[in-house]
UniProtKB/TrEMBL annotation, chain A:
Main location: membrane
Coiled coil: none
Organism: Rhizobium loti
Name of the protein this chain belongs to: Peptide/nickel transport system permease protein
GO cellular component entries: plasma membrane
TrEMBL record, chain B:
Keyword Transport: yes
Stated name of the protein: Peptide/nickel transport system ATP-binding protein
NCBIfam families: oligo_HPY (TIGR01727)
Keyword entries, A-Z: ATP-binding, Cell membrane, Membrane, Nucleotide-binding, Transport
Family statement drawn from the similarity comment of this UniProt entry: Belongs to the ABC transporter superfamily.
GO cellular component annotations of the record: plasma membrane
An example molecular function term from Gene Ontology annotations: ATP binding
Ranges that cross the membrane: none
UniProt xrefs under SMART domains: AAA
Organism: Rhizobium loti (Mesorhizobium loti)
Subcellular location as annotated: Cell inner membrane
Superkingdom classification of source: Bacteria
Residue intervals of the ABC transporter domain: 15-264
SUPFAM superfamilies recorded: P-loop containing nucleoside triphosphate hydrolases
Length: 313, 335
């Protein structure tokens, strides 16, 4: 196990190096000269040349790359071209809304998705199962911005039950924070609930037909014990896998949701950065999210061993 | 009335006209066509027949473990201690399963839950039916593993099923089944999936434990050799019906149904030598989706005459506690 974690960490370094090279080249190969962008429209050629020199853009690529990596390892992710402030500071300011939205969405998707899937598998062809089929068709096919605007129109605009848009930091009180996050969370969670529920259902159905389920029934186990004790743990590996995948995809969904609900999170930061060609921000967010993906993957792989004793690394 | 009660006192399980159907897309399979038999306290009853004759369906019907969507017991009674268990609520039925009636299955490799330790799975049975604490139940699990003669039980309780061999897994299954000292143990082909040497060990274990605990055993098998070694009484099933019922000595001495005779001829016998090809019963098992006219065995039967093809024979006495469902049973026995 320790050997496995060590090997995984080593391969993580390799993966991150590849990501680093890619992200670095992305900036250099993209059209548009950052120095010209920083200097602005009215800049002279000398001003641009000065900025190029200051940013080290005239050095050979490998030198620039090594400097960039060394700075990042030292915690310096560069300075935003537009805001003129350190990227890390900008990101950390935007972290709370994004984390709040992501975590709430995952909690909602996993609890509702898994329970929905279990109930559908328990009574195949029953009401819950048919409801899930309809719901997942909707959840898969309707994009988050359509659901989002519909929710805003209905629950906020027409019914006045919930705020239309915006974000209140948690320091401003749990209630306003939570109330503002309900609609975005549900809108974003829709697709993930459908996804997790479908996989849970399929996985549970397979397990429920196993011989050991009959053994459990022959022991006198209750329906609850059969489903949650005997079946769910066996169905756990695929469910855990899709939860991991969902978490990874979540970051894409967060960008859209933050735009629709006007939440000042990382998603919005990135969208603005792309519009402004603020490369240091784009680069940093790419690197950080890649690192997060790798970490999630490693956690999921390790979690498998907790579920299934046959999995050994 | 007094007479009747004293007769029935030692009857543990009394099945009358049990009918179980399987439902397909467009057809109904009459897996059990009204069978009646009894299991007495402490006896070992063999249930014999080819695959698909209804042996396992009988077992699953008794425990009410048939697949919910595709099968249903549509008629008859299953009296356990005089109460019809088909009338019990699900909750009451769960109290019987694993406590008073336990079952072991054909596939030891897949019948244990792979994600829990063997000890956990035995302890679970104990905890469902008693108020035992976790640690008491685990002690009981270890004791059960010792009882089924698994070496090193204190270590094995913490093993997962994949860490055990097929024979050990079947021993563990037996340990689960006997953990609550059931009055009836249904063993559905418990040795079929095992190596020959392991088969003998498991059979001996079941027989031994039965003697020690006084549990009645319903032994489902297609192997007459197993029946001869383990059972006192035998039921022979064919196409969802009982075709012969006798104590084991009578059955082997004077089989009264041509099907039973056919089964006996197809058991390999060392005395007959190796060269001869093993005789088989010609023809195939009838399709239970269609109504059967006459005796279901008639198309394969060397004794079949006109009446066999027209009228279904009922199970009738052909000797003391020996019954057969054959129009020509007396002639068959004489052969």
């Amino acid at each position: 196990m320790a050997g496995f974690i060590f090997r995984r960490l080593v391969s993580t370094i390799a993966v991150m190096a590849m990501v680093g090279i890619f992200v670095f080249l992305l900036l250099r190969l993209a059209p548009g000269d950052p120095a010209a962008m920083i200097a602005g429209r009215s800049a002279t050629a000398e001003m641009i040349a000065g900025i190029r020199e200051k940013l080290g853009l005239n050095d050979p690529m490998p030198v620039q790359f090594i400097r960039w990596v060394r700075d990042m390892l030292g915690g310096d992710f560069g300075t935003s071209i537009f805001a003129g402030r350190p990227v890390l500071e900008l990101i950390s300011q935007r972290l709370e809304p994004t984390l709040s939205l992501s975590i709430l969405t995952m909690i909602l998707s996993v609890t509702v998705g898994v329970s929905f899937g279990i109930l559908a598998a328990w009574r195949t062809g029953g009401l819950v199962d048919r409801l899930l089929a309809a719901f997942s068709a909707l959840g898969y096919s309707v994009p988050v911005f359509v659901i989002g605007y519909f929710f805003i129109y209905f629950f906020a605009f027409r019914m006045h039950w919930l705020p239309v848009q915006g974000y209140v930091p948690i320091e401003g009180g749990f209630r306003p924070w939570f109330v503002h996050l309900i609609l975005p969370t549900v809108a974003l969670g829709f697709g993930y609930i459908a996804f997790i529920a479908r996989v849970t259902r399929a996985s549970m159905l397979e397990v429920l037909s196993e011989d050991y389920m009959r053994t459990a029934a022959a022991k006198g186990a209750s329906s609850y014990a059969m489903l949650f004790h005997h079946a769910l743990k066996n169905a756990g590996v695929p469910i855990l896998t899709v939860i991991g995948i969902s978490f990874a995809y979540l970051i894409g969904g967060v960008v859209l949701t933050e735009t629709v609900f006007n939440i000042p999170g990382i998603g919005r930061l990135v969208v603005d950065a792309i519009n402004n060609r603020d490369y240091p921000i784009i680069q940093s967010v790419l690197i950080l999210t890649s690192g997060l993906y790798v970490l999630i993957n490693l956690t999921v792989d390790l979690a498998y061993t907790l579920i299934d004793p046959r999995i050994r690394y | 009335m007094l007479m009747r009660e004293s007769i029935e006192e030692d009857v543990l399980l009394d099945i009358r006209d049990l009918e179980t159907h399987f439902y397909g897309e467009e057809s109904v399979t009459r897996a059990l066509g009204g069978i009646s038999f009894q299991v007495k306290k402490g006896e070992t009853l063999g249930v014999v027949g080819e695959s698909g004759c209804g042996k396992s369906v009988t077992a699953l019907s008794i425990l009410r473990l048939l697949p919910k969507l595709s099968a249903r017991t549509v008629g008859g009674e299953i009296r356990f201690h005089g109460r019809d268990i088909l009338e019990l609520s699900d909750r009451e039925m769960r109290k019987i399963r694993g406590d008073q009636i336990a079952m072991i299955f054909q596939e030891p490799m897949t019948s244990l839950n792979p994600v829990y330790t063997v000890g956990h799975q035995i302890a679970e049975a104990v905890q469902i039916h008693t108020k035992a604490s976790r640690s008491v139940a685990m002690e009981k699990a270890e004791e059960m593993l010792r009882l089924v003669r698994i070496a090193d039980p204190e270590r094995r309780v913490n093993n997962y099923p994949h860490e055990l061999s097929g024979g050990m897994r079947q021993r563990a299954m037996i340990a689960i089944a006997l953990a609550c000292s059931p009055e009836l143990l249904i063993a559905d082909e418990p040795t079929t999936a095992l190596d020959v040497t392991i088969q003998a060990q498991i059979l001996r274990l079941i027989v031994d434990l039965k003697e020690r605990t006084g549990t009645a055993v319903m032994f489902i098998t297609h192997d007459l050799g197993v029946v001869a070694e383990t059972c006192q009484r035998v039921i022979v099933m064919y196409a969802g019906r009982i075709v012969e019922q006798a104590n084991v000595i009578d059955l082997f001495a004077r089989p009264a149904h041509p099907y039973t005779q056919g089964l006996m001829r197809s058991v390999p016998d060392r005395r007959r030598g190796r060269q001869r090809r093993l005789p088989e019963i010609p023809g195939i098992v009838p399709n239970l989706r269609e109504p059967i006219v006459g005796c279901s065995f008639a198309p394969r039967c060397p004794f079949a005459i006109d009446i066999c093809r027209d009228k279904t024979p009922i199970l009738r006495d052909v000797g003391s506690s020996h019954a057969a469902a054959c129009w020509r049973a007396e002639e068959v026995m004489g052969v």
